[in-house]
Design goal:
The chain has one helix at residues 2-7, and strands at residues 31-33, 36-40, 43-46, 49-53, 57-58, 61-62, 70-74, 79-85, 91-99, 106-112, 117-122, 132-139, 144-150, 163-171. With 186 residues, it is mainly beta. The protein has one domain (2-171): Sandwich (Jelly Rolls), CATH 2.60.120.260. It has a six-stranded antiparallel beta sheet with strand order 1-4-7-14-9-12. A hairpin with a 2-residue loop joins strand 5 and strand 6 (61-62). The protein is globular. Keywords: Cell wall, Glycoprotein, Secreted, Signal.
Length: 186
């Protein structure tokens, strides 16, 4: 289903959706980044956001990253966001991978200002490595879409929180109806 959705898309419109572009100080092993527009290139940060590396230890777990070497973990009420140039009236898909870091219910709120808002319960049901792929669609109501991923929870353990990677926004195309052709049943 998601592969069919992606097949009808153009190239991604986000900057650094895989979190592989290094911050100005370079990548460090397990670092919380401060709020601001330049902590993670391309993203605006609110709250405690941790840039994690594949193989990083957290408690008794080893964190796995689905693609590349880096992802972000969102602390309590933390968010990452980005403004994307879009074509008003066109349909777009938001795709991403997400996982939880603790054995408890975690959620991720995905929103586009003036478009869609969806809270996704992260249950990691479909992948043995703990990551699931998600897709949402929206119609652009303006020339820019304000995309935001937020941890709406308040966890007792501050090391818990959803992990996010492989974020993409792509324009969807609806095929034109063929002219002069008809379906004939026999």
């Amino acid at each position: 289903m998601i592969s069919d959705l992606l097949a009808s898309c153009t190239t991604g419109l986000l900057s650094n959706g895989d979190f592989e572009t290094a911050p100005s100080g370079g990548f460090v092993k397990s670092a919380s980044v401060a709020e601001g527009a330049s902590s993670i290139p391309g993203w605006t940060i609110n709250g405690t956001v941790e840039l994690i590396s594949a193989g990083q230890h957290q408690g008794g777990m080893i964190l796995i990253v689905p693609q590349g070497d880096h992802a972000v973990r969102l602390g309590n009420d933390a968010s990452v966001g980005q403004v994307v140039d879009v074509e008003k009236g066109s349909e777009y898909a938001i795709t991403f991978s997400a996982a939880r870091t603790c054995a408890q219910l975690e959620a991720l709120n995905v929103s586009v200002l003036g478009g869609v808002s969806q809270t996704v319960d992260l249950q990691t049901l479909y992948n043995i490595e703990g990551w699931d792929a998600y897709a949402l669609a929206f119609q652009a109501t303006e020339e820019q879409a304000h995309l935001q991923f937020m941890n709406p929870g308040m966890e007792d353990d501050p090391t818990c929180g959803p992990i996010l990677d492989n974020v993409a926004v792509k324009k969807l195309f609806t095929p034109d109806k063929p002219k002069g052709m008809r379906l004939i049943r026999s």
